[in-house]
Amino acid sequence: MKKILLLTLTVFVLALAACSSDNQASDDNKEKDNVPEQQPEGNDRYAATFPLSGIETDESVDNRTIGVMINNHAAARPQSGLSEADIVFEILAEGTITRFLALYQSELPEVVGPVRSAREYYFELAEGYDAIYVYHGAADFVNDMIVNRGINFLNGSTYDNDGILFKRESFRKAPHNSYLQLGAVYDVASTKGYETTSTQESLNFLTEEKIETLDGEKAAQVKVEYGDNTSESVEYTYDEASGKYARSSNGEPSVDLNTETAIQVDNVFIVEAFHEVIDDSGRRAIDLKTGGDGYLIQKGQLQEIQWENKDGRIIPVKDSQPIGLVPGKTWVNVVPTDPGIKQSVTISNE
Hints:
With 350 residues, the chain is α+β, with helices and mostly antiparallel strands. It is 19% helix and 33% strand. The protein has helices spanning 2-34, 120-128, 140-148, 185-191, 208-212, 341-344; strands at residues 48-49, 56-57, 66-70, 87-94, 97-104, 111-112, 132-135, 153-155, 166-168, 178-181, 217-218, 221-225, 233-239, 244-249, 252-253, 264-265, 267-273, 275-277, 284-286, 292-298, 301-310, 313-318, 321-322, 330-336, 345-348.
């Protein structure tokens, strides 16, 4: 009888211990469930980074860059789609009127324009960023250069007002009314045998820590004038709250025609390059290969730097070392060596 009682007591104790162990495990699991999941830091939070804007994303980043020639005549303002470009080059076309090469990769607006004609220095820049080059018309010798150099291009003269790639709008007069339907670019490019995906090296971007330690001359207001015609001027005004520069043209805020979104810039990059008029129409040749003086303006501060052409890309350097960009939008203003960057650009803190 004693053996039976002892055996029964042993079984009871073991069962009680097992039950206690199960309850403890259950409690441990509950505690684990209540512990917040550790979020990865830095780039580990995202799958990739857009190469021209430095913005982290979980989306695919291998869509090929699209470079579009955008009109900047007074009759073409405000333009459509400029606020969504990753990089915009503003360069003199003829006289004191500038024209834009807008590079789209991280954002693709539905409509971009109005679109204008090609120039050699613009398509060379587009090629440096492995972009599909989109323009509307060009002098015969420029078209020949584009074809002979193997540039992947879409010419609006071929697709003029086809309702698929280009559309003429009635609210403006030609040549200021041809608009690119950007969503059709990859499909049309594919019919020409062009690649629509591309893996490209990212530009050099600053980390948050380095952004916080930026140092330079204060630059709340930046004015860029083109030639003697001071009516053709560009201004960038720093906004402390957003940490960005708002762009204006001839005193008027630059906004998107379709969305009324203000154009805000994270990097204002001004470069000085040699310009030469090459024909009676005032077309120019511009040296964007040799390098030279420049300003890099970020977060309310200006650095005097140099610029270099590295594999077709215009980059800022200091002491022969590349300088990082703030992640976001970059506008590059190219000014002539005559009269020079110091005469063309005015910095103010009023």
